Amino acid sequence: MRRRTTVTVAAAVLAMTFGAVTPAAAGQGGHDDGHGGGWGHGPGNGHGNGHGNGHGKGKSLELTMLATTDLHGRVQDWDYFRDAPYTERSGDATGLARVSSVVDSVRAEKGADSVFVVDNGDFLQGTPLTYLAAQQSPEAEHPMAAAYDVIGYDAQVVGNHEFNYGLDTLAGYVDDVDHPVLGANVIDVATGEPYLPPYTLQEMKVRGAKPVTVGIIGLTTPGSAIWDRNNVEGQVEFRDMVETAQQWVPVVAEQADVVVVLAHAGVGGTSSYDDPAVGTENPSDVIARTVPGIDAMVVGHTHRDAPSQIVVNEVTGEEVLLTQPYRWGGTVSQVDFELTKTRGQWDVTNATATALRTKDYPEDPEVLAVTDEAHQATVDYVNQVVATSTEELTTLTSRYEDTPILDFIQQVQTETVDAALEGTDRADLPVLSIAAPFSREAVFPQGEVTIRDIAGLYVFDNTLEAVELTGAQVRDYLEESASYFTQVPATGDVDPETITNADGTPDYNYDVLSGVDYDLDVSRQVGERVTRLEIDGEPVADDARFVVAVNNYRRSGGGGFPHISTAPVVYNEQLEIRQLLIEWAQERGVIDPADFYVENWQLVRDGEPLLG
């Protein structure tokens, strides 16, 4: 392991200054106070090591922060869904193996003692490698932890996807890694205390001077309370990020020369859910603008490539640097801090950010070595053949026309929920199903279909649920989904590739329904596009009752669709949809569109098919 020597202030020392440090309750995910060092409660008594005592003879020095975010299980630069090295049009690469070489290069250039390395969350979910890691015994070291430890990270914050596999999986990871995993606004319901350390203090010795203290606070988007309700409800809660920053930044600023906030959230104050009680999903710029005392923030969650953004704090008038590395390890943000001694204490006088593209660096053999066993096991797993497809099926056009491959998802979801309703008072209700085109590149080849083919179609670790909706609510839901399309002219040719993703709506927020027949007139304005909604050839009545199969993300409010998050839940057995697809294919051995494909929806203009 190639970590520079740093000191995280021990819990015992903080207890003398702030009062007792209270770890999370035993049994709530299993983390203990072994990762509780570096935080306490209440006001401090100065600047940690004492700014007035001096930090050496020089009047200035430079520190460098390296930051990553949203790795999503990328260790090696490999695409498990294609079973080939990762490629994208930009030429960007992925994975911690390349990140490691970037870190080594900067440490060599700047001096290891002046460099600290942080990660901004969403690391435990996203590839078959992390899916398998979540299924393995708790005793096995998590491959992401092994990779981070080789690199020598100093801190990271939890993202929303750290809760996808439950608190036990997160706790196992926390025990595996050598650095603190932070989460100031993640609160243990039983104790009311932070479930994870709110912050850590890193003491950095530069040029032989007295230590410079870097305070690192971790905040995560509160949407996890919605998206992973079944995993966290009654155990942890997520408090507002802005209010939590207001609580902890002054505490850390009293102890640190440099204050960094790791915020697993984007900017702009937007939310993909409609629940004010939970808090805003993406308030990073609000924190920078309203909470004084922050020198720099690492932001993420939204998968943008935004290495430098300046926000002026309205309290102090000082600039705060926000940096967002590109997702999956495509870039590493390098933030250089200039510190100047003023009246006996160090102040950050400048901060600049640069994006280091990992495609320009080789994969680190040491990271490859410590993760090779998990990588090979994943390759073997995804290449298992589960069925034979009678023809090639693709999602290439699923955004704008009905395709068999999405109906494969619909069929499995419908069958699963319909069988579960047998013998209940809803057994006679029609079962509808909701699916979205997660990927434009998913393909079932004609012939052998592997687990990686199915994983490429259903890329998220969602579980299946079902709710009851009325006919009027189904119509409202479809109207919201239809806002994905831009309004087309009343006449003339239309290129279907240009009419999707209106207002930046991602493909995964466009939902297709099965079980009803409907037309979407995209020449009309949003809210008036569902011109036909029928079942068995008859118009759907407003008071008709339906059971609707849907994934847990959408049912919990992800995407902000109407009615779905407040509707009565009639099915929830915590079964992963991707695994249901795999098992359905294995049991039958053949994937034949004739068994499930029903053309039930189309885009129209004045009642005529838009695309011929």
UniProtKB/TrEMBL annotation:
What is any one of the record's Gene Ontology cellular component terms?
outer membrane-bounded periplasmic space
InterPro entries per the UniProt record, alphabetical: 5'-Nucleotdase_C, 5'-Nucleotdase_C_sf, 5'-Nucleotdase_CS, 5_nucleotidase/apyrase, Calcineurin-like_PHP, Metallo-depent_PP-like
Record region (Disordered): 25-59
Q: GO molecular function: any one?
A: metal ion binding
Q: Which SUPFAM superfamilies does this chain map to?
A: 5'-nucleotidase (syn. UDP-sugar hydrolase), C-terminal domain, Metallo-dependent phosphatases
Domain 5'-Nucleotidase C-terminal, by residue range, is 385-564
Q: Which of UniProt's keywords are assigned here? A: Hydrolase, Nucleotide-binding, Signal
* Single biological process term from Gene Ontology: nucleotide catabolic process
Q: Where is the Calcineurin-like phosphoesterase domain?
A: 65-304
Signal sequence, start to end: 1-26
Q: List the PROSITE patterns hit by this protein, alphabetically.
A: 5_NUCLEOTIDASE_1, 5_NUCLEOTIDASE_2
Which Enzyme Commission number(s) are on file for it?
3.1.3.6, 3.1.4.16
Give the record's family classification. Answer: Belongs to the 5'-nucleotidase family.
Know the name of this protein? Answer: 2',3'-cyclic-nucleotide 2'-phosphodiesterase/3'-nucleotidase
Q: Which organism is it from?
A: Modestobacter marinus
Q: What is the organism lineage in this UniProt record?
A: Bacteria, Bacillati, Actinomycetota, Actinomycetes, Geodermatophilales
